[in-house]
């Protein structure tokens, strides 16, 4: 009687086993999500959208993407200005685009997803500029369309935050908006 088949072709015993495995997986997922690192990170101080977890990643990639556009001594100030500009721009995205961007940030913040997808096995703060360049090249040349989309998104996010800043205009030859 225990081995009788259900309508789906599974025995009751197999269905029971899968049910137990599913319950165990849900319990494990609930346990993992209760660990502080996996909880939703608090908004970064003074930010509307960017979270503390995002800043580690962004502070690592911004200097690499802006290399040559900013002097080394101006870079720390530029990174913070770019973060504020990014936050402002992100706060004006559509809810759907913002949700995708937040998913990208979470994916790149969690070690379980960051390491295999980016090749950055340690913390972002410890990644060298060359490590970050390899990460971008890896995503740019990936056979997975999703990683290519992530690459393009990141390459648009940083300029979105930086080129809205009047300090960036001289470097790119933009005289600024006309006086009216």
TrEMBL record:
Entries under SUPFAM superfamilies matching the protein: LuxS/MPP-like metallohydrolase (SSF63411)
Keyword Transmembrane helix annotated: yes
Ranges annotated as spanning the membrane: 20-38
InterPro entries, per database record: Metalloenz_LuxS/M16, TAT_signal
Native organism: Ventosimonas gracilis
Domain of life (superkingdom): Bacteria
Residues of the signal peptide: none
Keyword annotations of the record: Membrane, Transmembrane, Transmembrane helix
Name of the protein described by the UniProt record: Twin-arginine translocation pathway signal protein
GO molecular function annotation: metal ion binding
